[in-house]
């Protein structure tokens, strides 16, 4: 019997799992980010305080993981929405391209910030 | 018995005659504790014979009379009109399905999708000498899911299905759960292979509309989530 719904890729299980894993990582890192950036400081947060923190390589590693998971989680979600609502194949390919390009641009800008600051 | 005046707005549509569905309004006096189906019968028998709707058992077991009333998917036969606040009822056919006439929708696609997941016991081990036994614990795992009457209220309430008609839908996934988690069934792998598809189970985004729409109060979303976990466990 032919399949009624279109047969697409079998990657659904992996994507679903990664979305959950990245959500948990994001949750933990977000709390870490807030605590270290906003709550540990005494008094008003100053630019120099943050700069001081960002010199540590561990800090930058966490920042980098945070950036990576945030971009993956966010753009994976957007791609899921596109799959929900956009059906023409060509349109999907175009949108997929746009999503990947934007994701890599954001990743690049984020990395640039992290590396630039850490070199200061 | 106390009578009550109510106002009805029913979505009417005959595809051969009209281009678009339109609303018909009716005003009638009915018993206070009559159901939505009683009201529809009253209209069909005494006011407007051209109104079409499905009905059969009028005891919430055949699943024919699922409708959308005031934005909720319900079974017309088991829902009393006093459940809806105010004296106005807005009756529409199930959303997400093509309309055949008035409140009658085309369920072919729904049942075709159900057939895809093979809704019957698949046996590979030799038959037991006597009856098939199942422990109470094994049965309790599927107890709720076998209550499904295939009315289509859940599938039609699913926003994922509205946007993508190829999506399998909660009713078929619930049926898949019912057999995959049945201790007597041997066809789990075939079924998992069938539903493990971007347009299969992974189109479900845990919206919970199906659970809310189900007239049998089956927690469909939970069972779909259990299926997801099982598929992930299997594919790792």
Q: In words, what does this structure look like?
A:
The complex is a heterodimer of chains A (120) and B (236). Chain A is mostly helical. Chain A has helices at 12-39, 47-53, 57-85, 89-119. The termini of chain A are far apart. The relative contact order of chain A is 0.11. The model of chain A has no long low-confidence stretch (mean pLDDT 85). Chain B folds into two domains: 3-105, Beta-grasp domain (Ubiquitin-like (UB roll), Roll), CATH 3.10.20.30; 108-235, Orthogonal Bundle (Fumarate Reductase Iron-sulfur Protein, Chain B, domain 2), CATH 1.10.1060. Chain B contains nine helices and seven strands, in the order E-E-H-E-E-E-E-E-H-H-H-H-H-H-H-H. The termini of chain B are far apart. Chains A and B meet through helix 1 and helix 3 of A and helix 2 and helix 9 of B.
The description of the largest β-sheet of chain B is: 5 strands, mixed
Instruction: Assign the CATH class of the largest domain in chain B.
Output: Mainly Alpha
CATH class of chain A: Mainly Alpha
Task: Report the CATH superfamily of the largest domain in chain B.
Answer: Alpha-helical ferredoxin
Question: How far is it from the N-terminal to the C-terminal residue of chain B, by CA?
Answer: 63 Å
- Which stretches of chain A of 5+ consecutive residues score pLDDT under 50? none
Structural class of chain B: alpha+beta
Strand runs of chain A, count: 0
When the domains of chain B are counted, the total is: 2
List segments of chain B where confidence is low: pLDDT < 50 over at least 5 consecutive residues. Answer: none
CATH overall fold name of chain A: 3 helical TM bundles of succinate and fumarate reductases
The number of helices of chain A is 4
Q: Provide mean pLDDT of chain A, rounded.
A: 85
- The helix tally of chain B amounts to 9
Q: Assembly type of the shown chains?
A: heterodimer
The appropriate CATH architecture of the largest domain in chain B is Orthogonal Bundle
Order of helices and strands of chain B: EEHEEEEEHHHHHHHH
Q: What is the terminal-to-terminal distance of chain A?
A: 65 Å
Strand content of chain A: under 5%
Number of strands of chain B: 7
């Amino acid at each position: 019997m032919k399949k009624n719904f279109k047969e697409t890729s079998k990657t659904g299980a992996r994507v679903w799992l990664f979305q959950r894993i990245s959500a948990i990582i994001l949750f933990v890192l977000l709390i870490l980010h807030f605590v270290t950036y906003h709550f540990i400081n005494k008094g008003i947060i100053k630019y120099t305080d943050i700069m001081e923190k960002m010199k540590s390589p561990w800090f930058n590693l966490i920042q980098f993981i945070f950036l990576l998971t945030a971009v993956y989680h966010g753009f994976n979600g957007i791609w899921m929405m596109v799959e929900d609502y956009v059906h023409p194949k060509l349109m999907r390919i175009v949108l997929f391209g746009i999503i990947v390009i934007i994701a890599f641009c954001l990743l690049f800008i984020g990395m640039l910030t992290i590396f630039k600051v850490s070199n200061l | 018995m106390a009578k009550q005046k109510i106002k009805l707005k029913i979505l009417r549509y005959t595809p051969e005659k009209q281009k678009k569905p339109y609303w018909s309004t009716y005003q009638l006096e009915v018993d206070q504790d009559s159901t939505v189906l009683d009201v529809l019968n009253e209209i069909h028998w005494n006011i407007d014979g051209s109104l079409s709707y499905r009905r059969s058992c009028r005891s919430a077991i055949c699943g024919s009379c699922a409708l959308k009333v005031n934005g909720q998917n319900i079974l017309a036969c088991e829902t009393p009109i006093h459940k809806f606040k105010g004296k106005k009822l807005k009756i529409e056919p199930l959303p997400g399905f093509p309309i055949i006439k008035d409140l009658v929708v085309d369920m072919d696609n729904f049942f075709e999708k159900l057939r895809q997941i093979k809704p019957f016991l698949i046996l590979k081990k030799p038959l037991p000498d006597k009856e098939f036994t199942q422990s109470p614990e094994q049965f309790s795992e599927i107890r709720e899911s076998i209550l499904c009457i295939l009315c289509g209220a859940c599938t039609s309430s699913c926003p994922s299905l509205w946007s993508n008609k190829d999506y399998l839908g909660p009713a078929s996934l619930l049926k898949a759960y019912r057999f995959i988690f049945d201790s007597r069934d041997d066809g789990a792998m075939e079924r998992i292979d069938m539903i493990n598809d971007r347009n299969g189970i992974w189109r479900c985004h845990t919206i919970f509309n199906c659970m809310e729409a189900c007239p049998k109060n089956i927690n469909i979303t939970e069972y779909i989530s259990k299926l997801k976990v099982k598929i992930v466990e299997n594919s790792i």
